[in-house]
Amino acid sequence: TMMEETLAVAAALDCHPDITIERRLAGAEKVGDHRTSTLQDLEAGKPLELDVLLTAVLELATLTHTPTPTLTTIHALSDLLAHQAAA
């Protein structure tokens, strides 16, 4: 759902990535069991890269009036987690 919302934002900007959601997921599955860089940052007490990963997409969604309820929810939860981890 997050990827679908991101593609909707891209489409609103007349950007149409060549790679499909299915292909992205298949690529992620090939990596196998690993800890993402965001999880590694969280565990190391480093700032999370939420601005690059989520905030920028949400800003573009606002500019294009594209609904992103799932991305908005995940951003709020991730931001809360980041603030709790920093405390």
Quick overview:
The chain has 87 residues and is mostly helical. Helices cover 71% and strands 0% of the residues. The chain has a single domain (2-86), classed as N-(1-d-carboxylethyl)-l-norvaline Dehydrogenase, domain 2 (Orthogonal Bundle).
Q: What tags apply to this protein structure?
A:
single chain; 87 residues; mainly alpha; N-(1-d-carboxylethyl)-l-norvaline Dehydrogenase, domain 2; 71% helix
Describe what you observe in this structure.
This protein is mainly alpha-helical and 87 residues long. Helices cover 71% and strands 0% of the residues. It is built from 5 helices and no strands. It has helices spanning 2-12, 21-31, 37-43, 50-64, 69-86. α4 packs antiparallel against α5. The radius of gyration is 14 Å and the shape is flat. 10% of the residues are buried. The model has no long low-confidence stretch (mean pLDDT 91).
